[in-house]
Each structure stands twice: as C-alpha cells, then as structure tokens.
Amino acid sequence: MLIDRRRVLAGATALGGAAAIRPALASAQTDWHALAEDVKAQMAWSWDRYREHAWGKDEIKPVSGSFSSFPLKTHHLGLSLIEALDTLWVMGLDSRFQDGVDWVKGNFDADVDGEVSVFETSIRLVGGLLSAHHACGDAVLLAKARDLADRLLPAFATPTGMPYRFINLKTGAVREPLTSPADIATYLPEWGTLSRLTGDPKYAATARKAIVAVFERRSKLDLVATKIDVLSGKWRSRQATIGSYCDSFFEYLWDSWQLFGDAECRRMYHVCTAAILKHQQVWKDGSLWFADVDFETGVIVGTEQDELASFYGGLLAQGGAMKLGAAYTESWAKVQKRFGVLPEGYDYATAAPTQLANALRPELVDAAFTLWLIDWDQRWRDIGRVHFLAMKRWNKAEYGYTDLADVTGDPKRQADHCPGYWWSEQMKYYYLLFSDTPRFDYNRNYLSTEGNVLMGFKRPSA
C-alpha cells in the first residue's frame, strides 16, 4: 500500500530531544509567488544556456561554457538533461520538458562500453527517467529506465547480495567490492517503482536484499560503518557517520516504508536511528550535531560534519523525531547565516570550516522542504529563501549556476561546474517550497534521494 505522507508524518511521536531553537521567521511581506516565479525564471534561463552550449552533454561548466562527462569518463548520457526533466514539468516549462523528452527518446542509449557507478547511475538516471515517466506517462521513458536497470543488475550477483561499486554498461564487467552502505542500499524506491510499473518483481527483490544485508551486519550497538567488502561481508572501517557513505542507507529505510508500506524497513530504520541518537548525538552551545563514532564501541572519533548530512534533520522529522530534526536543521541554518553558503565540511568542536568549497549542494533546503511538509511553519520556507538568494548572489555565472571554490572569501570564489543534481534537487525544492503549484500533491508524495518525484504529480486540467 502507499502511504499518505502528511498523515503519517504529522501523527508521528517525537523520539525526544531538547526543544528547537526558533530562528526569525520570514517577513510577513514575503511574496512567495514572486519568489517561485523567480526560481522558475532562473531554471528556464539555465536550461536555455545548457541547450545553447552543452545540449545532450552530461554537465555544463557555467563559467567557461564548456562541459564535462559523468558518470562515464568519455561518453555523455545527457545526465543534466534527464535530471532536469521532472523539475521542468512541475514548473510548467512544458515546451522545454518536451524538448528534453524528445532528446531522450531519440538519443539516450545505455549500450555503451564504459564503466559507471552503480549507485550514481541508479539514483540519477534510472530515477530521472522514472520521474519523467511519472510526469508524462511516456512508455519509452519507462523502457529506457528498465534497460538501464537491467544493465546494473549483474553488479548484485555477489555472495552477499550487496553490489559491486562499478559495472560496465555493455559487458557487465564489475569492479571494486569495497564499498559503502549508501552505495549498496540506495535502490529500493526506484527499483520498487520499476517493479510496480513493469510487473517484474526482480528489481524490488534485488534492492531489498541488499538493504537487509547491510542491516544484518550492523554492530552490537546497532551502528553501521562506512566501508564493507561485498564479497566477504566483512567491515573494512570502524567509522559510523550520518554523512557521506551512510546517509542514504538510512534515508531509504524510511523511504521504503513511506512509498511501499514495508514495515520491516520501518523497523530497521527505527533500530538504526535509536542507535544514532544514543551514541552520536552531541549538543554544543545550544546546537545539535552528530559525531562520527567507532561503530563497535561508540567512542567519538571525529567532530567534522559533512554538508551532505544536513539533509538528516528532515529524515529525523519524518521518522517521528520532529524536535531533534528541527534542531539539527537549525544548527546548519546558523552555519549558513555565518558563511552565506555552507562549506563542504564543518567542525562543530572548533566552529571552523574543514572544507572551504561548496559543490552547489541542496541538502539544507531538502531538509527545510521536508520539515515544511510536516508542520507548514514559515521558518522552513525562510531557510529555503535565504539559500536561494545566496545562490543567486554567489553562484550565477555567464552560462548557468556553478559550484564555489571558497565560501569564506568576499566575494566568494567560483569554480566551474554545475552538477547534474542541481537540476533535479534544489531548483525543485525551491519551487515546491514557494509556489503551492497545483501540479504537485503536497499531502501525498515521494521524492527520492536525488529529488526525483516518484509519487505526487498531478496532471493539469485540460
């Protein structure tokens, strides 16, 4: 069964924690509709620059006007184009959406002799094709998503059911058994959706087996570490984190419950979350953080916070820990206020950035959007507004929006890269947060870890 997200989330009981520290709310005079229209205009402008300078290429370089390839090293699959599709659709940029769909139908072909990340290819390209199919119903998009997933399937043929990290799309040759919980277990929402749409259960079964394999190898403290060998099933690190390497493992436990009603995934989520709250929760100067710890002893081994972890406040709130989720999101909002744009790494113990760059990240506004869906509090919209306006100020270049090399400078120093997820994630989060669009069901929906909408689009009336 599918889950009514608002009813499940609003009715969740908090797991505990101190009361959230409430930041200043947005001005009552904020014109959210105008802000949404600005987001839409920036998306259209960026898409037009992409079409002029990098059409069909994976990622545009917004400063130089050139492009780069990903996830293949020398061949382009139209990554940014595919990631942009459902964002264009929900914004009502219909002619641009159709141009993109036409390109995919005429040009996207995964039969390439090249190696890709199984994880990245699934969340970005399989997910992007599925969300575009959800938007318009075109069967060709579903067929291409299925073909791509079929090419990734051989990576899961291991003694543990956990996938190799890399696979050749044409030959099926696999490489790198040393991988992470996120690389292993971030598949079920996309692949379960694929099973539902095609009637073939193998996709969901394969993805679910991998999730369970990670969970069953947790430590006696119910924590998982960052590195594991998928052939032996042995852990190759001792570091437990909520950030990179583990983040979307936790996310997809909850999501698989939310999207499919998988009660066992919900149980696994709560086991993991209880352990994180018990062993990793740290309060410093009124702010909530999550330390990295030894997954077998619980001893703190690091105080650096990965910017990617800023999504976690939204996940905590979804799972019932609303006060803690709000507090963690507000901790990151304070860092945003201090630097304008979040650094890639931040040490809560020293209150100093550990990585000065920012890869045009969406995680904080992702959390703000999720929290807003739960309680409709305008403070989450305001965090998103600050995030968007900072991006417009610092990241806009001649040919699009670029990442930053240093967020601490004044002016902030730009790099020259627009990641594919920018098109799928923060531009969509901004628009949904500000617009109240009739094309989206704000009560019953699902967005993947890559921001792909797999449930919740509403077709406009004729």
Describe this structure in words.
The structure is a single chain. Helix 3 runs antiparallel to helix 4 and helix 15 packs across helix 17. The protein is an alpha+beta fold. It has a single domain, classed as Alpha/alpha barrel (Glycosyltransferase). It is globular, with a radius of gyration of 21 Å. The chain has 17 helices and 21 strands.
Could you provide a short overview of the structure?
Helix content is 48%, strand content 12%.
CATH level-1 class = Mainly Alpha
Mean pLDDT: 94
Instruction: Name the overall outline.
Output: globular
- Biggest sheet, in brief? 3 strands, antiparallel
Computed Rg: 21 Å
Defining traits:
single chain; 462 residues; alpha+beta; Glycosyltransferase; three-stranded antiparallel β-sheet; 17 helices; disordered N terminus
Blueprint (SSEs and pairs):
Layout: H1 5-10, H2 32-54, E1 59-60, E2 67-68, H3 79-90, H4 94-107, E3 115-117, H5 118-136, H6 139-152, E4 166-168, E5 174-175, E6 178-179, H7 181-185, H8 188-198, H9 202-216, E7 228-229, E8 239-240, H10 247-260, H11 263-279, E9 281-284, E10 287-290, E11 292-294, E12 300-302, E13 304-306, H12 312-318, H13 322-339, E14 345-347, E15 352-355, H14 363-375, H15 378-394, E16 396-397, E17 400-401, E18 404-406, E19 413-414, H16 420-424, H17 426-435, E20 446-447, E21 453-455
Antiparallel strand pairs: 1-2, 3-4, 4-5, 6-7, 8-11, 9-10, 11-12, 13-14, 14-15, 16-17, 18-19, 20-21
Helix pairs in contact: 2-17, 3-4, 3-5, 5-6, 5-8, 6-8, 8-9, 10-11, 12-13, 12-14, 13-14, 14-15, 14-17, 15-17
